[in-house]
Write a structure and sequence with these properties.
Radius of gyration: 18 Å
Mean pLDDT: 85
Strand content: over 45%
Number of strands: 20
Number of helices: 1
Helix content: under 10%
Largest sheet: 10 strands, mixed
Structural class: mainly beta
Low-confidence stretches: 1-36
C-alpha cells in the first residue's frame, strides 16, 4: 500500500511538499466547513520529494435535503510546480491545462480549477481521462502527460452517522475499490480530524473508538466523512520527477454521536 501525506486546500491554495522521499507519514489537517452546496474541498494527496504535483479529482458529494439524498458531482484540477526537488517554493509554470481546460493561476503560483454539475463549466472532461499540458516558464520546461482514462472508484457504504463508542467499520476489497493504489478514510468534526490509509484489499477495517475520541459530537450534520481511493504515477519529464494523481473523493456531511 502506498502511504501519502494529505492536506486540505482551502480555496484551492497550494499543494505543499514535505521532505521525505517515500510515500509515508499521513498528515491530517483541519477542514473548513463551506457555506455552499458544492461541498467541502476534497483532501488532496501530495507526493514527497518531487518537482511537481498534478492532481485530477472526481468528487461525489452527498447532500441530505428534505429526507432525500442528492449527489452533487464535481471535477477538480490542482497543480503545483516547485523551484527544485524537495522545495516548498511554488513557481510559475506558464499555462497548465487539464483536458484542454486551462487551470486558474493563484497568487502563490499554484493552479486550480473546479467544475460542478449545473454550473459553468460543468465538467473537466475527466470521464475521458486526465491529460495534462504544461506550457512551461522559467525553470519549468514544457511537458505533457496522459494519465489514462481509468479513475479510482469506491462503491461501498457511506454512513450518515458514526457512534464513537462503537467505532466505524468499513470493508475494502476488490469488489468495492477499483483502480487504486490505496484508499483513505478521513473524518473531521470540530477542530479535530482523523485520517488513515488502508490497502485496497484490507477487507473489514475498523476506525476504533479511541481513534474517534477527539472528534466533536455533532447532531447538525456538520462533521465530514471522506473515503478516498487514490492512484499515483511518478513520471520523469525533462529530468524532473512529477507526481500525477487521480483520485475519487466520496464526501458526506454526517453526525457523530
Amino acid at each position: 500500500m502506498r502511504k501519502l501525506s494529505y492536506l486540505l486546500v482551502p480555496a484551492f491554495c497550494a499543494l505543499l511538499m514535505a521532505s521525505c522521499v517515500k510515500k509515508e507519514d499521513v498528515v491530517p489537517t483541519t477542514p473548513t466547513t463551506p457555506t455552499t452546496n458544492t461541498g467541502p474541498t476534497p483532501q488532496v494527496p501530495t507526493q514527497n520529494n518531487v518537482d511537481g504535483v498534478l492532481a485530477a479529482i472526481k468528487m461525489n458529494f452527498k447532500i441530505e435535503q428534505a429526507g432525500f439524498t442528492i449527489d452533487v458531482v464535481s471535477e477538480v484540477g490542482v497543480a503545483s510546480m516547485y523551484s527544485s526537488t524537495g522545495s516548498s517554493t511554488i513557481v510559475d509554470a506558464g499555462t497548465v491545462k487539464l483536458n484542454s481546460n486551462a487551470l486558474d493561476k493563484n497568487s502563490n503560483n499554484s493552479y486550480t480549477k473546479t467544475a460542478t454539475t449545473g454550473q459553468t463549466p460543468s465538467d473537466l472532461g475527466l470521464s475521458s481521462g486526465a491529460s495534462w499540458d504544461v506550457s512551461g516558464a522559467g525553470s519549468v520546461s514544457a511537458f505533457t502527460y496522459n494519465h489514462g482514462s481509468t479513475f479510482p472508484k469506491y462503491t461501498g457504504t457511506m454512513p450518515k452517522s458514526i457512534t464513537k463508542s462503537s467505532g466505524l467499520t468499513l470493508t475494502f476489497n476488490s469488489g468495492n475499490v477499483k483502480n487504486a493504489d490505496s484508499v483513505y478514510v478521513f473524518i473531521a468534526s470540530g477542530s479535530n480530524s482523523f485520517i488513515k490509509g488502508y490497502a485496497t484489499n484490507a477487507g473489514s477495517i475498523t476506525v476504533t473508538s479511541s481513534e474517534l475520541s477527539n472528534l466533536a459530537t455533532v447532531s447538525d450534520n456538520t462533521a465530514i466523512l471522506e473515503i478516498l481511493p487514490v492512484k499515483i504515477d511518478l513520471i520523469t519529464k525533462n529530468g524532473k520527477q512529477y507526481a500525477f494523481v487521480k483520485e475519487e473523493a466520496n464526501v458526506r456531511y454526517i453526525n457523530i454521536n
